[in-house]
Protein: PorT family protein
Amino acid sequence: MKNFTLLVLFLLVGGTLLKAQVRLHVGATSAFNSTFVLDKGLTDDPRYNAEMTYKWSPVGIAFGTDFTNGFGLQLESILSKQGQIYQIVDIAQQQIGERKIDLEYIHLPLLLNFMGNSASRTSFNFAFGPQLSILTQGQEIYQQYKQGTLKLPEGGQVPQGATDNGNGTYTAPPSTTVLASSDASAAIKQFKDKDLQLAIGFGLNIDIGSHLYLSTNVRGNYGFTDMRNEDLINSIKQNSPNDVLKDLFGRRANMLVGVQLGLHYMFGGNRTAIRSLGPLGN
Structure:
């Protein structure tokens, strides 16, 4: 009886999709992005200057369903490299090192996809929706190449091993410190393994064959949750005296803006025939 019920449901759903002439498409994407780690604490810290950071999202797979010529859903799986580089600068604003945040995520956006007039070979598209981001690896490294005199942030402590100059500055020797890592044994030094984000994009779909089309998009996503481990956040809230944590106050979020290209194949519909139906045709 159970198998019979499942068969009936399958036939009903299949019949509904055929009647609606739902069209499926699958594609591969790649993207080049500007990536940001938004942290007010680091931005306001006189020891750091944020620099533009560029990363690849080399591989992405897209699965979509077009319910009409003007609306559909798309699920993607994207391997994305992200992060931010902050220059370490002394009191003379000379760079003496770098603070690097390197992250790698699998992004899983579920997008509402709106398409423009499909009567021509080129049509506008706009998409937005929630995105689950799963961290695969991450590392944050403080690397000071040479000795320098740095200005303390307000309320900051002199780092261990540095000399307090007594005037709101300290002199620090060269050093390399791993501040956080996805492989760290201590939870307080780990990143959060999942992040909830909003993804949004707009661009053009360009037909290049009866079943093939090229997508070109400006794409962005923004994280709503702090990317750091909850143990670290709790330590900050409790005003931990740990020197490593003093400059990690404030919420820290991921943001990405870039250009995405994709090649897609459509099943269940000829692109030339679909264009002739107009944006609301079935």
Summary: The first helix runs from residue 2 to 20. The radius of gyration is 25 Å.
